[in-house]
From TrEMBL:
GO terms for molecular function: oxidoreductase activity, acting on the CH-OH group of donors, NAD or NADP as acceptor; quinone binding. It comes from Acidianus brierleyi. This is Short chain dehydrogenase. Belongs to the short-chain dehydrogenases/reductases (SDR) family. The keyword Iron-sulfur does not apply. InterPro entries: NAD(P)-bd_dom_sf (IPR036291), SDR_fam (IPR002347).
Length: 252
């Protein structure tokens, strides 16, 4: 599998799953552009390693449009777009927090829409690939408190299928990856070693493989979906959660 000379854009690519995806494509020879909205120090480190980083809040269409213009000035196409940027807040329906809900919607779902729309002219030039980061939460496999996050990811799943239908005429493939629980700063950051171990065990008990996810597992799937090895795959949601057992069987 080689991406020599290919142009890959990854949103939220400085940390966690996005960082693993960015590094995977870089190792395969791609020119990788990372859109990020925090972690300036990490972005500078990545610049020194040959990545192009652009500070961009994907929830603001004007910033996304500017980022697309910057990429267009340097490259005449985009071969792969990975819509990875996202945030997660945990609260039940009865604890509805409008500010957190709107922030998740703007970044997770609206951000995916804005980035795809503004970069589409460059993707059309290469008959490229779009890969969206969904979640098994968007398919209903999620504990209590994840209702509103699940809604944003369900929206990404529907968007993926609709884009595959609408953009297929251009030779563009659109798929999504729906990870289960993956160990990243977002899921274990700020927790004690004891809390992390309890969390790991909780998820191990609820997967068929009795293990937890690593960012590189997801990066491997993304690179496959972007490669010629998956030429006949579009409109699909690839679930990567270790065989998560539905939460209803545990009475959560």
């Amino acid at each position: 599998m080689s991406f020599n000379g290919k142009v890959v854009v990854v949103t939220g690519g400085t940390k966690g799953i996005g960082r693993a995806i960015s590094e995977k494509f870089k190792s395969l020879g791609a020119n990788v552009i990372i859109l990020y909205n925090s972690s300036d120090n990490i972005a500078r480190e990545l610049e020194e390693k040959g990545f192009l980083t652009i500070k961009c809040d994907v929830s603001k269409r004007s910033q996304v449009k500017k980022a697309a213009e910057i990429v267009a000035e340097k490259y005449d196409k985009v071969d792969v777009l990975v819509n990875n940027a996202g945030i997660w807040y945990l609260f039940s329906f009865e604890e509805f927090d409008e500010e957190k809900y709107e922030k998740m919607m703007k970044i997770n779902l609206d951000g995916t829409i804005y980035v795809t729309y503004e970069f589409l002219p460059l993707i059309k030039k290469s008959k490229g690939v779009i890969i969206n980061m969904a979640s098994n939460a968007g398919l209903g496999t999620s504990a209590i408190g994840n209702t509103f996050y699940s809604i944003t990811k369900a929206g990404i799943i529907i968007l993926t299928r609709r884009l595959a239908y609408e953009l297929g005429k251009y030779g563009i493939r659109v798929n999504a990856v729906a990870p289960g629980w993956v160990e990243t700063d977002m899921t274990i950051g700020g927790k004690s070693a004891e809390e992390i171990e309890k969390l790991r065990q909780w998820f191990k008990d609820r997967t068929m493989l009795h293990t937890t996810g690593k960012p590189e597992y997801i990066a491997n799937i993304v690179s496959f979906l972007a490669s010629e090895d998956s030429t006949y795959i579009t409109g699909q949601i690839i679930v990567a959660d270790g065989g998560r057992i539905d939460y209803l069987t545990h009475g959560i």
